[in-house]
Amino acid sequence: MNTELIIAIDVATPEEVMPVINSLPDEVSFYKVGLELFISTGPAAFIPFKEKGKRIFLDLKLHDIPRTVARAVKTAAEHGVDILTVHAGGGSDMLRAAAEAARECGDKAPKLVAVTTLTSLNNDDLIEMGVTRGLSEHTLALGKMAIDAGIDGLVCSPHEAAAFRKLIGDAPILITPGIRPAGGDAGDQKRIATPSMAVEAGSSFLVVGRPILEADDPREAAAAIIKEMRGA
Ligand code: C5P
Q1: Residue 90: which of 120, 70, 109 has the closest Cα?
Q2: Nearest partner of 84 among 92, 95, 74, 76, judged by Cα
Q3: Is 8 in the pocket of ligand 1 (CB under 6 A)?
Q4: What is d(CA 36, CA 114) in angstroms, rounded to the nearest whole number?
Q5: Positive or negative, the Cα torsion across 77, 83, 84, 89?
Q6: Average model confidence (pLDDT) for the chain?
Q7: Are the CB atoms for 174 and 204 separated by under 8 Å?
Q8: Rounded to whole angstroms, how far apart are CA atoms 162 and 231?
Q9: 3-state SS class at 151
Q10: Residue 67 belongs to what H/E stretch?
Q11: Beta partners for 147?
């Protein structure tokens, strides 16, 4: 599998974007835009990435009624978003509506990937929400439901990737955050994996933030991770 790197650019303003892009190797071509930057700037947040020919993973985790999500998917396509996240918990009808909206956008359609159980939730949280099956069973079931509804892929922990590959096969996209080079600082991530472990588990894209952006030499840190991914 030709696994690619996505840089999680967790900044608050567009002015902070260009120096980050310029501090990384040219071969880094995918960036994650999250809620903070998008709420502060709106679609203008995409401009510096597009100017540099970069692709955009817009992580807004859409979760609303089917019609609203379908219209948001179409709007994202108009703004040149390459990958967009939706919540599997929005249900099959919402997921199907999102997938159908993307199909109607043809070549401009973003790939849609579903988040399943947020990694900040544990079994007790699920029970509180009335979910009685175990966390991993619930997560796998939500992921399968999203793929069956026509969604292109999933965001998951590298520790879930191999189980998802068995369940949904090789075609769907799997995007895995929680990546740390061997010996790196875990920060607030609990279930981490090295780049090569994530590639071997079947990830299509690794999302990496702090291990690159907070490194003394971000260019070198990114190059080392890309090298490890290619060697896996
Ligand atoms: O800095 P770090 O490499 O931990 O950044 C990982 C990125 O992936 C962050 O933008 C974080 O919000 C995101 N993410 C995550 N774990 C999830 C889902 C998203 O770390 N389960």
Answers
A1: 70
A2: 76
A3: yes
A4: 19
A5: positive
A6: 95
A7: yes
A8: 19
A9: coil
A10: helix 66-78
A11: none
Q: Is 139 in the pocket of ligand 1 (CB under 6 A)?
A: no
Nearest residue (by CA) to ligand 1, atom 8, is 177
Mean pLDDT of 22-39: 96
What is the rounded CA–CA span in Å between residue 36 and residue 60?
10
Q: Give the dihedral of Cα atoms 36, 37, 42, 46; nearest 10 deg.
A: -150
> What confidence tens digit (pLDDT) does each residue in 150-192 have?
999 999 999 999 999 999 999 999 999 999 998 878 888 777 8
Retrieve residue 208's tokens.
């990496």
Q: Does 218 sit in the ligand 1 pocket, CB within 6 Å? A: no
d(CA 101, CA 67): 9
Q: How far is the CA of 34 from the centre of ligand 1 (A)?
A: 10
Domains for the chain: give ranges and CATH numbers: 4-231 (3.20.20.70)
What is the predicted pLDDT for the residue at 91?
98
Q: Which atom of ligand 1 is nearest to the CA of 214?
A: 1
DSSP string, 188-217: T-SS-B-HHHHHHTT-SEEEE-HHHHTSSS
Q: Which amino acid is at 58?
A: L
Q: Is residue 213 within 8 Å of 20, Cβ to Cβ?
A: yes
